[in-house]
Amino acid sequence: MDVEDQERIDRSLEKTRGGILGRLGTLFQANEITDELWEELEEILIMGDVGVETTMKLVDATRDRVRREGVKKIEDAYQILKEEMVRILQADAPPLDIDNPHRLLTVVLVVGVNGSGKTTTIGKLANYYRKKGKRVVLAAADTFRAAAIDQLKIWGERAGVSVIAHKPGGDPGAVVYDAIRASQESRDADILFIDTAGRLHTNYNLMKEMEKIRNVARRQVHKAPHEVLLVLDATTGQNAITQAEKFKQSVGVTGVVLTKLDNTAKGGVVIAIADRLGVPVRFVGTGEGIDDIAEFDPWVFVESLLEHDKRT
Fold first, then answer.
1. Nearest C-alpha neighbor of 162 from the set 196, 193, 131
2. Under 8 Å CB-to-CB from 267, ≥6 apart: which residues?
3. If you average pLDDT over residues 78-101, what whole number do you get?
């Protein structure tokens, strides 16, 4: 991870550090490890939107290691807490499989409800990978709203990449088919990002259509889609987890992009999402500009979340 990404993640957590989770650093400046410490840690994590289930798992794992390893110093207990947070955030996941030099075309399906920042995120990802020297194409498979197609075209123009689109109301599967053909032939692309309708996770027909899009991609490109990224709005807190669980069941989500992290004090939800889904956070949106996206690094996130009081 480069320094710019680290700085973006650090800045995006300012509101979270200024909220309830900012008390963690102070809590671990006490003189000794007591039962009250664990009780207050539980309270802070739950209030910080880590969620009850994930909080209990995190506190139990930390306390058990402290006892098992005979830890006496409170700063060592703090380090164990960080390590347990990182372990949850890593979610036993394989490395992100977008920038794969051994694959002719990488297909990435991007899903999420309306208002999550999905189309904006695709524009940012296109810009991110184009700057890394990749040839990127976008597919406007959200054909239900004319505005969605127009928005993707605007982001494509900003990012300097091609957008394959049909008329509003068209068949999303046909858009994906044409986009893959164009990526393989005239555009000679490395990566294809597919925008999909901002479907509510309760809509059965739309979920079925998502399966159709996946099948079209798989028939044309070996093992496609290679990543399915779910875009979630961090400001919705625990509600984001309910959305995420439904999407994971329906479309086989492989990673999460968390948007609007800079606009919320609920950064703790990142830990809950990784724990409850067993799916890693891959990117975070860190602002409104086209460059405001960072590849997620669990250690950088935890250090930014918990260590800021010692750096200022």
1. 193
2. 12, 13, 15, 16, 21, 48, 49, 234, 261, 305
3. 91
**Residue 245 tokens, joined:** 């669980």
293-295, strands of its sheet edge to edge: 162-164, 136-141, 191-196, 106-111, 227-233, 255-259, 281-285, 293-295
Pair 149, 197: CB distance under 8 Å: no
Q: Which two tokens stand for residue 122?
A: 């695709």
Which ranges in the chain belong to alpha helices (H)? Answer: 3-12, 14-18, 23-27, 35-47, 52-68, 74-90, 118-131, 146-159, 172-184, 204-220, 239-251, 269-277, 298-306, 308-311
Tell me the per-residue pLDDT of 168-197, one tens digit each, with 9 for 90 and over. Answer: 999 999 999 999 999 999 888 999 999 998
Distance (Å, whole) CA 132 – CA 191: 12
C-alpha angle 9-10-11 in degrees, rounded to nearest 5:
95
| Architecture of the domain delimited by 3-90 | Up-down Bundle (1.20)
Cα–Cα distance between 43 and 52 in angstroms, integer?
A: 9
CATH of domain 106-297: 3.40.50.300
- Reading the block at residue 91, the tokens are 């979610």
Domains of the chain by residue range: 3-90, 106-297
Residue 311 pLDDT exceeds 50: no
Strands 227-233 vs 281-285: parallel, antiparallel or unpaired: unpaired
Place of tokens 């409800």: 113
* The length of the chain, given as a count of residues: 312
